[in-house]
């Protein structure tokens, strides 16, 4: 068991997933699975969780730290004045200062910082900026939450050489299909995803040593560590998209014992998971999806399972009818059999019109 060496965590003031109210002028906007600390510091936890701010002049540096149980490195993506300018690696160790190159002669700029790596890769502390801050505000938008696995994390998506570096080196959560399509249709989003995770079992574990999504979802940090804060369900999405099953259907690594797929257990766990989501998000429209990575006979079984999940709520008049979305089969071009950034865009382009139509339905 790892011990987290974070003395500043005793300074918690507030726990929130979206900590800035709509249309409120302030210095920073936060989004995603995050934890607020004192002095506008924040821990970015989940994939594509973010902090944004406006500043005047051309001087700007940001302070970041890779914070996690095994002191590993992380990445963030930077968007300056609406333009993606790349990602930076945050090595383990003390808080580091990163200068941001500003070439535009505009009087005011906006910097958006997105966590590229997922919760399981550790967390990123945003410890402030040297920039001369101006006020920033948000407008009210419709909201979508994306629950999923490594595909939803955009894990193993961003590399020209899969043999170099480690797993987190190839993440790019900013370009994951959820955040990408959310920018396209102009909605706020929240990503709750973990590599290798499933509904009743994980990629290479029969729910013996590793937690499944129903066991960690209600914890802010997406782990079973009960010393960590609970998720507050403040986001209240209009749509909850669930893409879980790729790992349940997986054969694992071929070395560890893998039992035959248990459709009954998959469906039962899925139904119970949705019931929990409804308890906290009673007005949400739930969409369940297949996987572009699951083909052949397994895809047929997968679709049958999703239909059974949907049918289980057919007589439920208190919630909206569950929808099913089917991604087209894909031969992924990323690392370790995952979609790469271009594949993620293909998924976003497929899914965006469906979700946009659903949001606009009366």
Strand content: 15-25%
Largest beta sheet: strand ordering: 1-3-4-11-6-9
Mean pLDDT: 90
- Rg over C-alpha atoms, rounded to the nearest angstrom: 20 Å
Briefly summarize what is shown:
This protein has 362 residues and is an alpha+beta fold. Helix content is 20%, strand content 24%.
Structure report:
This protein is α+β, with helices and mostly antiparallel strands and 362 residues long. A 6-stranded antiparallel β-sheet has the order 1-3-4-11-6-9, with no helix packed on it. The termini are far apart. It is built from 6 helices and 17 strands. The radius of gyration is 20 Å and the shape is globular. Strand 16, helix 5 and strand 17 (323-325) form a beta-alpha-beta unit. Residues 1-25 have low confidence and may be disordered. The protein has helices at 150-153, 177-185, 213-216, 263-280, 296-312, 341-360, and strands at residues 14-16, 29-31, 34-36, 42-44, 50-56, 61-67, 74-80, 83-90, 96-99, 108-115, 123-129, 132-134, 143-148, 188-193, 239-243, 285-289, 323-325.
